[in-house]
Amino acid sequence: MKLIDKTAVVTGGARGIGLAIARRYLAEGARVVIADIDEASIDAAVVELQGDDSDKPVMGIRLDVCDRDSVARMIEAVERRFGAIDILVNNAAVFDMAPLLEVSEAMYDKQFQVNVKGTFFTLQAVARAMVERGQGGKIINMASQAGRRGEALASIYCASKAAVISLTQSSGLALIQHGINVNGISPGVVDTPMWRDVDALFARYEGRPLGEKKRLVGEAVPYGRMGLPDDHVGAAVFLASDDSNYVVAQTLNVDGGNWMS
């Protein structure tokens, strides 16, 4: 119960890693806010987390991280319901890929709009509220092993996640003077529903049968398999708790040994 009496907002929290983190935060005693753009998925996530107990401190709210007014409304709604935000998990992101010579401006704009601009301005808005409150806080940005290296078919996604790692470093240095720890988590290949789409794109561009790329990347992980959403919740609890008070501007690799840095 490391997060008792804390309020945590998880963007993109209605599925995948975000939902796994929200589930664990609730078990650790936090009040949990599922902030996502998909209202149907929000409702389903809230029902799942509350189970038979509608009094569990779970809140769902629609959030478009690309819309700064939407971010402001989210913060106001959370403060009305639960009080100040103690923990922010910047998890909302999108993925797309194409050969370098086929990347469109729309693909570029969408990934940077959500993955970089959305992450930064959500972080900025929540950090302002934390600074005004004067009691510090924890901010966790979800990066990716793709941000540690290049990939021929995912140039824009890799660049956007490299930007997230860089923003984590800069904002961590800027905000620790206010008692706000900013750190990141860098997952590797994770078995979520999104991987069906990723696998289909690899099948298209690499001429592979459906399912082959997913099998190959799983076999290549030193741990012996793809990651699961629940593999990331321990790091997320650590970075949100007092155990990480002396950890500043770091991005932890949680990837089964895929990348060492």
Automatic annotation (TrEMBL):
Belongs to the short-chain dehydrogenases/reductases (SDR) family. InterPro entries: KR_dom, NAD(P)-bd_dom_sf, SDR_fam. Pfam families: adh_short_C2. SMART domains: PKS_KR (SM00822). The lineage of its organism: Bacteria, Pseudomonadati, Pseudomonadota, Gammaproteobacteria, Oceanospirillales. This is D-sorbitol dehydrogenase (Acceptor). GO terms for molecular function: oxidoreductase activity, acting on the CH-OH group of donors, NAD or NADP as acceptor; quinone binding. SUPFAM superfamilies: NAD(P)-binding Rossmann-fold domains (SSF51735). Residues 6-188 form the Ketoreductase domain. One of its GO terms (biological process) is fatty acid biosynthetic process.
